[in-house]
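Problem: given the chain below (298 residues), write out its structure.
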Amino acid sequence: MLERLGKTLRQGGWRGGVIAGLALLLGACDVDPEHRRPGRDMVQQGYAAAEAPESDRNVTPADVSPEATWDASPVTTVQAPPLDDAAYASPAMAHDDAPDASREDAMHNTDDNPGLPPEALETLIAHGWMDRVLSGLGVWVCVDTQMLYVLEGLEPIWQARIATATAGTGAIANSYQTPLGWHNVSEKFGDDAPWGQVFRARGATREIWQPGDDTEEDLVLTRILWLDGEEPGKNQGYNEAGQLVDSKRRYIYIHGTNGEAEIGTPSSHGCIRMYNDDVIEIYDMLPLGTPVLITETQ
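Solution.
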Protein backbone atom coordinates (compact mmCIF):
# COMPACT_ATOMS: atom_id res chain seq x y z
CA MET A 1 0.00 0.00 0.00
CA LEU A 2 2.80 2.45 0.91
CA GLU A 3 4.61 1.68 -2.33
CA ARG A 4 1.42 2.35 -4.32
CA LEU A 5 0.85 5.57 -2.42
CA GLY A 6 4.40 6.75 -3.08
CA LYS A 7 4.11 5.95 -6.76
CA THR A 8 0.81 7.82 -6.95
CA LEU A 9 2.33 10.92 -5.32
CA ARG A 10 5.33 10.89 -7.70
CA GLN A 11 3.18 10.49 -10.83
CA GLY A 12 0.27 12.83 -10.06
CA GLY A 13 1.97 15.86 -8.51
CA TRP A 14 1.32 16.91 -4.95
CA ARG A 15 -2.34 17.93 -5.38
CA GLY A 16 -3.57 15.11 -7.64
CA GLY A 17 -1.30 12.69 -5.79
CA VAL A 18 -2.77 13.52 -2.40
CA ILE A 19 -6.32 13.07 -3.67
CA ALA A 20 -5.53 9.82 -5.44
CA GLY A 21 -3.48 8.65 -2.47
CA LEU A 22 -6.39 9.18 -0.11
CA ALA A 23 -8.56 7.20 -2.51
CA LEU A 24 -6.05 4.36 -2.39
CA LEU A 25 -6.03 4.37 1.38
CA LEU A 26 -9.81 4.25 1.44
CA GLY A 27 -9.84 1.36 -1.00
CA ALA A 28 -11.82 3.36 -3.56
CA CYS A 29 -9.53 2.67 -6.49
CA ASP A 30 -9.99 -1.07 -6.87
CA VAL A 31 -10.41 -2.04 -10.48
CA ASP A 32 -13.89 -3.08 -11.48
CA PRO A 33 -13.61 -6.68 -12.74
CA GLU A 34 -16.11 -5.83 -15.43
CA HIS A 35 -13.88 -3.18 -16.93
CA ARG A 36 -15.92 -0.68 -18.93
CA ARG A 37 -15.03 -0.53 -22.59
CA PRO A 38 -14.40 2.89 -24.11
CA GLY A 39 -16.31 4.23 -27.03
CA ARG A 40 -19.96 3.90 -27.86
CA ASP A 41 -21.96 2.08 -30.48
CA MET A 42 -24.70 3.39 -32.67
CA VAL A 43 -27.89 1.95 -33.97
CA GLN A 44 -27.65 0.86 -37.58
CA GLN A 45 -31.19 -0.41 -37.90
CA GLY A 46 -34.64 0.44 -36.69
CA TYR A 47 -37.10 -0.98 -34.20
CA ALA A 48 -36.96 -4.61 -35.34
CA ALA A 49 -33.16 -4.78 -35.18
CA ALA A 50 -32.81 -3.44 -31.66
CA GLU A 51 -32.00 -6.02 -29.02
CA ALA A 52 -32.79 -6.22 -25.33
CA PRO A 53 -34.73 -7.75 -22.49
CA GLU A 54 -36.84 -5.82 -20.09
CA SER A 55 -35.42 -3.73 -17.36
CA ASP A 56 -35.01 -1.44 -14.63
CA ARG A 57 -35.00 0.95 -11.79
CA ASN A 58 -36.18 2.47 -8.62
CA VAL A 59 -35.60 4.48 -5.51
CA THR A 60 -33.89 4.51 -2.13
CA PRO A 61 -35.03 5.50 1.37
CA ALA A 62 -35.44 9.20 0.66
CA ASP A 63 -37.62 8.54 -2.39
CA VAL A 64 -34.52 8.61 -4.51
CA SER A 65 -33.42 6.04 -7.04
CA PRO A 66 -30.16 4.25 -6.27
CA GLU A 67 -28.48 5.94 -9.22
CA ALA A 68 -29.41 9.23 -7.66
CA THR A 69 -29.08 8.36 -3.97
CA TRP A 70 -26.15 10.70 -3.56
CA ASP A 71 -27.79 12.90 -6.15
CA ALA A 72 -30.52 13.85 -3.70
CA SER A 73 -28.16 14.45 -0.82
CA PRO A 74 -27.01 17.98 -0.07
CA VAL A 75 -23.46 18.36 -1.35
CA THR A 76 -21.12 21.20 -2.14
CA THR A 77 -20.90 21.67 -5.88
CA VAL A 78 -18.50 23.81 -7.83
CA GLN A 79 -18.33 25.36 -11.23
CA ALA A 80 -17.17 22.92 -13.88
CA PRO A 81 -13.63 23.49 -15.18
CA PRO A 82 -13.37 25.94 -18.10
CA LEU A 83 -13.63 24.38 -21.53
CA ASP A 84 -10.06 25.07 -22.58
CA ASP A 85 -9.85 21.88 -24.60
CA ALA A 86 -11.22 22.14 -28.12
CA ALA A 87 -12.24 18.49 -27.91
CA TYR A 88 -15.21 19.53 -25.77
CA ALA A 89 -16.41 22.24 -28.12
CA SER A 90 -19.02 20.03 -29.78
CA PRO A 91 -20.43 16.50 -29.43
CA ALA A 92 -18.60 15.36 -32.55
CA MET A 93 -15.27 16.79 -31.40
CA ALA A 94 -15.78 15.36 -27.95
CA HIS A 95 -16.19 11.95 -29.49
CA ASP A 96 -13.09 12.42 -31.63
CA ASP A 97 -11.12 12.96 -28.43
CA ALA A 98 -12.57 9.95 -26.60
CA PRO A 99 -10.00 7.12 -26.34
CA ASP A 100 -10.47 4.20 -28.76
CA ALA A 101 -13.75 5.60 -30.01
CA SER A 102 -14.89 4.63 -33.48
CA ARG A 103 -16.28 7.33 -35.76
CA GLU A 104 -18.46 4.73 -37.45
CA ASP A 105 -19.94 3.74 -34.09
CA ALA A 106 -20.80 7.37 -33.37
CA MET A 107 -22.89 7.88 -36.50
CA HIS A 108 -26.68 7.85 -36.33
CA ASN A 109 -28.25 6.27 -39.37
CA THR A 110 -31.08 8.79 -39.63
CA ASP A 111 -30.88 9.82 -43.29
CA ASP A 112 -32.21 6.48 -44.48
CA ASN A 113 -34.31 5.70 -41.40
CA PRO A 114 -36.66 2.84 -42.35
CA GLY A 115 -39.45 4.17 -40.14
CA LEU A 116 -41.45 2.21 -37.60
CA PRO A 117 -43.10 -1.14 -38.31
CA PRO A 118 -46.91 -1.48 -38.03
CA GLU A 119 -46.75 -3.05 -34.56
CA ALA A 120 -44.77 -0.07 -33.23
CA LEU A 121 -47.24 2.39 -34.69
CA GLU A 122 -50.08 0.43 -33.12
CA THR A 123 -48.38 0.72 -29.72
CA LEU A 124 -48.01 4.48 -30.04
CA ILE A 125 -51.57 5.02 -31.23
CA ALA A 126 -52.95 2.77 -28.45
CA HIS A 127 -51.21 5.00 -25.89
CA GLY A 128 -52.75 8.17 -27.33
CA TRP A 129 -49.65 9.42 -29.14
CA MET A 130 -51.59 11.48 -31.65
CA ASP A 131 -53.68 13.11 -28.92
CA ARG A 132 -50.62 14.26 -26.96
CA VAL A 133 -47.97 14.80 -29.62
CA LEU A 134 -49.94 15.48 -32.81
CA SER A 135 -47.37 16.54 -35.42
CA GLY A 136 -44.93 17.90 -32.84
CA LEU A 137 -41.81 16.47 -31.22
CA GLY A 138 -42.06 13.49 -28.89
CA VAL A 139 -39.84 10.79 -27.36
CA TRP A 140 -40.68 7.10 -27.26
CA VAL A 141 -38.70 4.81 -24.93
CA CYS A 142 -39.30 1.18 -25.89
CA VAL A 143 -38.29 -1.06 -22.99
CA ASP A 144 -38.79 -4.23 -25.06
CA THR A 145 -36.08 -3.28 -27.53
CA GLN A 146 -34.00 -0.98 -25.28
CA MET A 147 -34.36 1.80 -27.83
CA LEU A 148 -35.20 5.50 -27.64
CA TYR A 149 -36.80 7.27 -30.60
CA VAL A 150 -37.34 10.97 -31.24
CA LEU A 151 -40.34 11.41 -33.52
CA GLU A 152 -42.07 14.24 -35.31
CA GLY A 153 -45.64 13.08 -35.30
CA LEU A 154 -45.25 9.39 -36.14
CA GLU A 155 -42.06 9.87 -38.16
CA PRO A 156 -38.81 8.84 -36.41
CA ILE A 157 -36.03 11.39 -36.91
CA TRP A 158 -33.43 10.09 -34.44
CA GLN A 159 -32.83 6.88 -32.49
CA ALA A 160 -30.36 5.45 -30.00
CA ARG A 161 -29.77 2.45 -27.80
CA ILE A 162 -30.48 2.91 -24.11
CA ALA A 163 -30.53 0.96 -20.84
CA THR A 164 -33.57 0.81 -18.59
CA ALA A 165 -33.84 -0.92 -15.21
CA THR A 166 -32.40 -4.31 -14.40
CA ALA A 167 -35.41 -4.91 -12.14
CA GLY A 168 -37.93 -4.36 -14.94
CA THR A 169 -40.73 -1.82 -15.06
CA GLY A 170 -42.73 -0.32 -12.24
CA ALA A 171 -43.33 2.95 -10.46
CA ILE A 172 -43.29 2.24 -6.73
CA ALA A 173 -40.58 4.06 -4.81
CA ASN A 174 -37.59 1.87 -3.94
CA SER A 175 -38.56 -0.74 -6.53
CA TYR A 176 -35.46 -0.05 -8.66
CA GLN A 177 -37.72 -0.12 -11.72
CA THR A 178 -38.34 2.11 -14.72
CA PRO A 179 -41.77 3.76 -14.71
CA LEU A 180 -44.12 3.35 -17.66
CA GLY A 181 -46.51 5.81 -19.22
CA TRP A 182 -46.48 9.48 -20.19
CA HIS A 183 -43.87 11.88 -18.86
CA ASN A 184 -42.37 15.18 -19.90
CA VAL A 185 -38.91 16.72 -19.80
CA SER A 186 -39.39 18.97 -16.78
CA GLU A 187 -35.83 20.17 -16.15
CA LYS A 188 -32.44 19.98 -17.88
CA PHE A 189 -28.96 20.18 -16.39
CA GLY A 190 -25.57 20.34 -18.09
CA ASP A 191 -25.63 23.18 -20.64
CA ASP A 192 -22.16 23.26 -22.22
CA ALA A 193 -20.75 20.81 -19.66
CA PRO A 194 -17.77 18.77 -20.91
CA TRP A 195 -18.14 15.17 -22.02
CA GLY A 196 -17.99 12.96 -18.91
CA GLN A 197 -18.94 15.71 -16.44
CA VAL A 198 -19.95 14.10 -13.12
CA PHE A 199 -23.13 15.46 -11.53
CA ARG A 200 -24.13 15.18 -7.90
CA ALA A 201 -27.39 16.69 -6.71
CA ARG A 202 -27.69 17.75 -10.34
CA GLY A 203 -24.74 20.07 -9.87
CA ALA A 204 -21.46 19.87 -11.77
CA THR A 205 -18.55 18.70 -9.63
CA ARG A 206 -14.79 18.91 -10.26
CA GLU A 207 -14.89 15.33 -11.56
CA ILE A 208 -14.66 14.57 -15.27
CA TRP A 209 -15.00 10.87 -16.06
CA GLN A 210 -13.09 9.39 -19.00
CA PRO A 211 -13.28 5.90 -20.53
CA GLY A 212 -10.81 3.72 -18.69
CA ASP A 213 -11.29 5.43 -15.34
CA ASP A 214 -11.72 2.82 -12.63
CA THR A 215 -14.83 3.29 -10.53
CA GLU A 216 -17.45 0.99 -9.10
CA GLU A 217 -19.89 3.86 -8.62
CA ASP A 218 -22.80 4.32 -11.02
CA LEU A 219 -22.28 7.89 -12.17
CA VAL A 220 -24.69 10.41 -13.63
CA LEU A 221 -22.69 11.99 -16.44
CA THR A 222 -22.60 14.70 -19.11
CA ARG A 223 -26.28 15.77 -19.27
CA ILE A 224 -29.46 15.25 -17.23
CA LEU A 225 -33.05 15.40 -18.48
CA TRP A 226 -35.32 15.09 -15.44
CA LEU A 227 -38.65 13.40 -16.16
CA ASP A 228 -41.96 14.28 -14.55
CA GLY A 229 -44.87 11.84 -14.66
CA GLU A 230 -48.16 12.97 -16.16
CA GLU A 231 -50.48 10.16 -15.07
CA PRO A 232 -51.78 10.50 -11.49
CA GLY A 233 -51.64 7.22 -9.58
CA LYS A 234 -49.40 5.63 -12.22
CA ASN A 235 -46.27 7.76 -12.37
CA GLN A 236 -47.38 10.88 -10.54
CA GLY A 237 -48.19 11.27 -6.84
CA TYR A 238 -49.42 8.16 -5.00
CA ASN A 239 -51.27 5.04 -6.15
CA GLU A 240 -54.52 3.73 -4.68
CA ALA A 241 -52.57 1.84 -2.01
CA GLY A 242 -50.94 5.06 -0.84
CA GLN A 243 -47.52 4.17 -2.27
CA LEU A 244 -45.33 6.82 -3.84
CA VAL A 245 -45.20 6.38 -7.61
CA ASP A 246 -44.01 9.86 -8.53
CA SER A 247 -41.30 9.73 -11.22
CA LYS A 248 -39.91 13.17 -10.45
CA ARG A 249 -39.69 12.51 -6.72
CA ARG A 250 -37.99 9.21 -7.56
CA TYR A 251 -35.39 11.18 -9.57
CA ILE A 252 -35.99 9.41 -12.86
CA TYR A 253 -33.55 10.89 -15.38
CA ILE A 254 -32.36 10.41 -18.91
CA HIS A 255 -28.59 10.75 -18.45
CA GLY A 256 -25.12 9.74 -19.58
CA THR A 257 -23.33 6.90 -17.83
CA ASN A 258 -19.94 5.37 -17.10
CA GLY A 259 -21.54 1.98 -17.83
CA GLU A 260 -21.53 2.43 -21.59
CA ALA A 261 -20.64 -1.23 -22.15
CA GLU A 262 -24.08 -2.19 -20.80
CA ILE A 263 -26.12 0.10 -23.03
CA GLY A 264 -28.62 -2.00 -24.99
CA THR A 265 -29.41 -4.23 -22.02
CA PRO A 266 -31.51 -3.59 -18.89
CA SER A 267 -28.80 -2.49 -16.48
CA SER A 268 -29.86 0.70 -14.70
CA HIS A 269 -31.44 1.30 -11.32
CA GLY A 270 -34.52 2.92 -12.84
CA CYS A 271 -33.20 5.80 -14.93
CA ILE A 272 -32.81 5.74 -18.70
CA ARG A 273 -29.09 5.58 -19.40
CA MET A 274 -27.54 6.66 -22.70
CA TYR A 275 -24.12 6.85 -24.31
CA ASN A 276 -22.60 10.19 -23.39
CA ASP A 277 -22.40 11.26 -27.04
CA ASP A 278 -26.08 10.48 -27.47
CA VAL A 279 -27.29 12.30 -24.36
CA ILE A 280 -25.51 15.46 -25.56
CA GLU A 281 -27.28 15.19 -28.88
CA ILE A 282 -30.74 14.56 -27.48
CA TYR A 283 -30.28 17.23 -24.80
CA ASP A 284 -29.83 19.87 -27.48
CA MET A 285 -32.72 18.46 -29.49
CA LEU A 286 -35.46 18.39 -26.83
CA PRO A 287 -37.01 21.55 -25.32
CA LEU A 288 -38.53 21.58 -21.87
CA GLY A 289 -41.99 20.09 -21.85
CA THR A 290 -41.27 17.54 -24.59
CA PRO A 291 -43.61 14.55 -24.08
CA VAL A 292 -41.91 11.24 -23.30
CA LEU A 293 -43.74 7.91 -23.53
CA ILE A 294 -42.22 4.79 -21.92
CA THR A 295 -43.80 1.47 -22.95
CA GLU A 296 -43.37 -2.26 -22.50
CA THR A 297 -45.41 -4.94 -24.25
CA GLN A 298 -43.53 -8.19 -23.62
